[in-house]
Amino acid sequence: MYWTLWHATLTMISMPPIPLGVDLGGTKLLILAETPAGERTWKFPTGPGFTPADFDAHLAAVGAELAPAELVYGLSVPGLVNDEGVVGPCDVLPLLNGWRPRAAAALNDGQAALTAYAAGCAPGATLAIVGSGTAIAAALQIAGHRVPCTELGYVPYGPEATLDAAASGAALLAHLALTAPELAERLSRHDPVATAAVRAAGEAFGAGIAALINLFRPERIGLYGGTLTYLGYLTAALAAVDRRALPALRPSCRVELVPQPELIAARGALLAVR
C-alpha cells in the first residue's frame, strides 16, 4: 500500500501540468485541453443564470477526467476584465460581474480570439477580429500593438439601437421569438420573415466591419461566431462591407472566416497561458 501511495505521489509530481483554454460564452462553456494523447474538448451549457459555482463544478468534472495531472487554464469571457483579473460588465452572463476567476490568464473573448488569430500573421500587422454570437465581440491591433479592450457591440446603429441589438444572435432570436434550431429550420425552407431578419442582422454586422476598415485600415479581419452559420447572414454581412467600406481601402483588407472558428477563443486563452 505504501509503495502505491508513493508511486501515485511521484507520478503527480513528475507529470507536467495540462494547459486548458477555456471559452466561457453566453450559451456554452467550451474547454480545450492539450493532453499527452492530443487535444480534447468538453462543452457545457451556460445562460444568464450561470454562476462562478457552475464554472467551478464543470472545471472540476474535467479535472476528474484528467486526474492526476495538475491543470492550469486561461479563460476567455464575454465581458471586460480589469488588470487585477476581475470580470467587469458582462451583459450576457450577469452573475459573473465582479468575479475573480482562479485562472493563469483571464481576458475578454475578443482579445482571446485575436491572440489566436494574430499568431498566424506578421508580428507588425494591423489586424481585427470580429465575432457574432450571443453578442458582438471585437479586438484590434495596430502595427502589432494591441488596442485595449473594445466593445464594438455598443457602437450605435440606427437612431437608437446598437450593433448588439441589431446584429447579435441573441437579439435575432429574441426578435423572432425562436430558438436557434427553430431559426435554422425556418431558414432551410426559406421562410420570408426569418430570411429578412437574418439578412438585416447580417447587414448590421457588415456595417460594423466596414467601420473598422474605414477607421483603422486593417490588413486582415477575421470573423467567427455561431450567428455566422445562419443561412444568409454572412452573405449579407460581406455585401454590406463592400457597400459601406471606403472603396480606396476595401481592396487592401482581407475579410475572412478564421479556421475552426468555434475554437478560436479557447485557443487564444490557451496561448495566453503559455
Structural features, described:
With 274 residues, this protein is an alpha/beta fold. The protein folds into two domains: 17-112 and 264-273, Nucleotidyltransferase, domain 5 (2-Layer Sandwich); 121-258, ATPase, nucleotide binding domain (Nucleotidyltransferase, domain 5, 2-Layer Sandwich), CATH 3.30.420.40. Helices cover 39% and strands 23% of the residues. The chain has nine helices and twelve strands. It has helices at residues 2-14, 52-66, 109-118, 163-167, 169-176, 180-188, 192-216, 233-244, 264-273; strands at 18-24, 28-35, 38-45, 71-77, 105-108, 127-132, 136-142, 145-146, 156-157, 161-162, 220-224, 254-257. The strands form three sheets. Strands 3-2-1-4-5 form a five-stranded mixed β-sheet. The chain has a five-stranded mixed β-sheet with strand order 8-7-6-11-12, sandwiched between helices. Strands 9-10 form a two-stranded antiparallel ribbon. Strand 1 (18-24) and strand 2 form a beta hairpin. Helix 7 (192-216) packs parallel to helix 8. The longest helix is centred in the C-terminal third of the chain and has 25 residues, at 192-216. It is globular. Mean pLDDT is 92; it is low at 1-12.
